[in-house]
Amino acid sequence: MTQTAAPTDHDRLLIIDFGSQVTQLIARRLRELSVYCEIHPFNTVDEAFLADFAPKAVILSGGPASVFAEGAPRPPAKVFEMDVPILGICYGQQVMMEMLGGKVERGHNTAEFGRAYVTPADEKLPLLEGWFATEREQVWMSHGDHVSQIAPGFAVYGTSPNAPFAITADTSRNFYAVQFHPEVHHTPNGPKLYENFVRLASFEGDWTMRAYREEAVAAIREQVGDKQVICALSGGVDSSVAAALIHEAVGDQLTCVFVDHGLLRKNEAQEVVTMFRDHMNLKVIHADEVELFLGQLDGQSDPETKRKIIGSLFIDVFQKYADQIEGAEFLAQGTLYPDVIESVSFSGGPSVTIKSHHNVGGLPEKMGLKLVEPLRELFKDEVRALGHELGLPPSFIGRHPFPGPGLAIRCPGEITREKLDILREADAVYIDQIRKHGLYDDIWQAYVAILPVRTVGVMGDGRTYDFACALRAVTSVDGMTADYYPFTHEFLGETATRIINEVQGINRVTYDITSKPPGTIEWE
Ligand code: XMP
């Protein structure tokens, strides 16, 4: 039996995951409605788990399997006997129909992938309140198999050309089943369907960041008692919000260590330390270890070697400072809910390592510390909302992500102090441009990379032989996939001119228009 993310007194909705790529989106749609929900893989949900979790409603997610496959994933039959509303989506719909006495057929000519239109049946369904303002509703389909006979007690409320049972329900039991994915963007009225579902299930919408703040503070006090907590503060949103929350709970029992590895952006170290130490009254150790990091990186140009050096030095340095804090028993980490959700794997086997990400994951075992992870139940947008609630400045909360290895991975080839200084200046101008044009919040991440190549230019009457740089700006939801940001030519031209005029050492500016995949967001 898996553990729930946290014991809470809130109404809980259980999402049983059958491995759909978009299951997390279901949870996000629900959290937006102030409903507390958790995702659990089907193979971890048994009767004991259901009894312990006591969901007020259940959603069966989509998934890649076919109910015909040997060992096809199924929820425990008990779920249909709990007298709670159930919504089955795509595979969840098929497995629900099959288990309740209906029939599913293989695809052949009835598969539907992508946009489809559902038309309503005569009878109205409360789940669809606010739907069908026109004769048909756009939805997103992705199915090979389809339901060919509905289970006893169900009636049809919507059909699409290839899914005669696109929307069905047994209203007496509050069971609903849809063939499409209401959680994705391409089902424009999808959020309305979730809103109706949680209303039918009598959720009170009691999951707010204001309530969460109070509960989290009480839980941290209970966990930590009178012991000391240490926290690696990076200045990123997650560690900042975690630190602010823990500080509210245990005050001076928290000490933050801000490791300055010399790979930070212009004025960054000062800004972070000033904000937390002077404005928020946190105990912050500013670990100035620039010489150590840059010394060890000297002459290294391989991306993985650089990452490994930084990762292991970071752990050593953090440990050195933490050892000075007497009685430290807890380590705070800004782990988020997406890191906690266990994923369902149908293929098995490890995935390829593209980059060894830098984090402090190995620290607790190494140092024998217990973890405090007050953001374990939250999605990124909830962390931001909590940050607002805690009074962190909006400009801080809305900052683009910044990688642990910092500018090292934006400086392909050898890292030198000269290149880092040039890079810091160019990046500051670029971000200033983006802010001035009001684009910062539309972009997921933007930065400058300094290229390991000098090019010839002409300024005034003189020849220059300076570095080239690349501007990067992407849109993304979670950093897993990304597209380049479509700046106007005017913006790009103006930015290139400003960088070349204002930053000594750069005489050529390029714009990186690679999406991810095939590229990655960072250059290394
Ligand atoms: P990539 O380059 O893999 O980056 O497409 C995806 C996102 O992750 C960030 N990134 C990191 N974040 N430690 C971090 O904390 C790392 O080692 C690291 N490497 C990349 C990157 O900035 C982007 O937001």
Task: Provide an overview of this structure.
With 524 residues, the chain is an alpha/beta fold. The protein contains 15 helices and 20 strands. The strands form four sheets. Strands 2-1-3-4-11-10-9-6-7 form a nine-stranded mixed β-sheet, with helices on both faces. The chain has a five-stranded parallel β-sheet with strand order 14-13-12-15-16, sandwiched between helices. Strands 17, 18, 19 and 20 form a four-stranded mixed β-sheet that branches. Helix 5 (209-224) crosses helix 6 (237-250) and helix 8 (290-297) packs antiparallel against helix 9 (303-322). Bound molecules: xanthosine-5'-monophosphate. Residues 355, 357-359, 401, 403-405, 445, 479, 516, 520-522 line the site of xanthosine-5'-monophosphate (XMP).
